[in-house]
Every structure is written in C-alpha cells, then in structure tokens.
Amino acid sequence: MIVDKVVLITGCGGNGIGKSLSKAFYEYGFKVYSSSRNLESMNELSSMGINTIRLDVKDKLSIESAVNQIIKNEGKIDILINNAGISSFNTWIDMPDEELEDVFQTNTLGLIRTTREVAKHMIKERTGLIINIGSVAGFIPMPISGLYCASKAALHSFNESIRVELSPFSIKVMLVMPGPLKSEIVNKTLPKFKEIISNPESPYHPIYKELLDRPLTSIKNQAPIQGLTDSIMKKIFSNRIPNHMKYGPGSIGLVFLSWLPTRLIDFIFSRKFGFSKLKSIIKNDQTKNKDN
C-alpha cells in the first residue's frame, strides 16, 4: 500500500479519464484528491471515500484555493494529473468567441496555471510527478477540430519545456497522448456543432453532412478508458517513467499519417471530409456566374 503519496487529479466530473484514474489510484492506496468545478458530479467518488475538492481550471483563485487546501491538509502533493479538458469540433471561422476562449482556458491556460501552483510546492520538496493528458490531435492536426488541436499542441510544447526546467528538482513530467476514447467528451460537442454547420450562412454549409463525419469518425475509433488507466498505472510503477506515452489504435494511425508528405495528408483529409467536394461546388458556381 502506498499510503503516503498524495495525488491531485483535475477534471473528475462525469465518466471520463479523471474518474477512472481516481478509482485506480485510490485502490492502489494513494491519498487521492479528485477535483472538478462541480462537486456534485463527483458524488460516486466521494461515496467511495475519495477526497473531492472544487477546482475550476479556468479560475485562478479556485486553483489556488484547492491547492492550498490540500497542502494544509497533507503538507504536500506528490503527483499532479492534469486531465481537465474539453473537446471542440467546429470550422474555426464559424466558432463563437466564447467557445474559442473556453477551449484554450480549459485545455491550455488552466493546465499551465494549475501546474505552476502545484510545482511551487514540489520544488520545495525536491520531488514530484506531473502527468499531462494531451492528445494525438496535438501531434497531427486535423480539420474541423483546429482549435482543439492547437490547444493540445500548445500543451505538448509546454510539457516539453517544463520537463527540462523541473528536472533539476527531481520532478518528473510525463505526457500522455491517447487517441479517441469512449467518453462523453465528443458527444457533448455534437449538438452545437450540428447547429452551426447546418446554418445556411456558414461557408461550409454545402458539405455539412460530410463534415459531420469528422466527429463520428472519432466515435467509431474510440478505445476503452480503462485500458488507458491500466497503461498509465503500469508506467508510473515502472523502473523508468517514460517522457511520452501514446495509447489506442487511433493514436497509432495518426502517428503513421504524420509520416506522410503534407500534400498527401491534405489530399486524404480533403477527400474524406468533403473539402474537395466544396472546391468543386465553388468552381462550378464561379463558372455559372461568368456565363451569366
């Protein structure tokens, strides 16, 4: 039993990675603090005896309050798992400002602020482990999720930087890059996405049915969350914690895709998600206008 290790996990509301990791760490004997901006969303975890604490990664004061409360209770945080995140499927030109800001505040800036607040205490202790849940989408950008991919790519770059900066203090940093997972995160984005691209005012309206295939492709290729949890637990108990970890068949396919020439990647995405069709529609419209 590992009874003296304190773990803080963000984004534990719902039935996603956060909840699964909370249960796994708790079962291994860690002192777990599961966090979410909504305490009621973690009732199942609290009923198991897991500590739950309110932490909204978009709120600097909420982050500071949660971390300070854990330090007051335990005197340290040994492991931070930055899991809080939201998905986003949209054409960037149609994306409302509030969604744009929400994506980066949650997936990138919130993670950076939480890491900074926890790392201050880890530096004093000269030890710690930070696990950042990224995505293969940050490794190989895809259309119709450009802002999400950008937020994860920024997370990845931040991860690579702090891994070196924190190493003198014996703080290990690991980046986890899963492919599509069986969770609620994609389904939550679909209603708004359908509403926006089905609007006749959208420049992409002529291919909105093809664009819907983008999130549906992710859903079709989803891997089980428990498998990711098991893989993470296996890695942290290994003799040498890796810098990077990929998981899921979707991650393998996208990594392979990244090796192809960019023109070929563009061709594949354009054919699959309707952009080639839209180009033909626009070209035909221009021809008709000239004839008239």
UniProtKB/TrEMBL annotation:
Pfam families (alphabetical): adh_short
Source superkingdom: Eukaryota
UniProt keyword list: Oxidoreductase
GO biological process assignments: phosphatidic acid biosynthetic process; triglyceride catabolic process
SUPFAM superfamilies according to UniProt: NAD(P)-binding Rossmann-fold domains
Annotated GO CC locations: endoplasmic reticulum; lipid droplet
InterPro entries (UniProt xref): NAD(P)-bd_dom_sf, Sc_DH/Rdtase_CS, SDR_fam
Presence of keyword Transport: no
Tagged with keyword Lyase: no
UniProt cross-references to PROSITE patterns, sorted A to Z: ADH_SHORT (PS00061)
Any one GO molecular-function label of the UniProt entry: acylglycerone-phosphate reductase (NADP+) activity
Family label: Belongs to the short-chain dehydrogenases/reductases (SDR) family.
PANTHER family the UniProt entry points to: NADPH-DEPENDENT 1-ACYLDIHYDROXYACETONE PHOSPHATE REDUCTASE
Identification of the protein by name: Short-chain dehydrogenase
The organism of origin for this protein: Dictyostelium discoideum
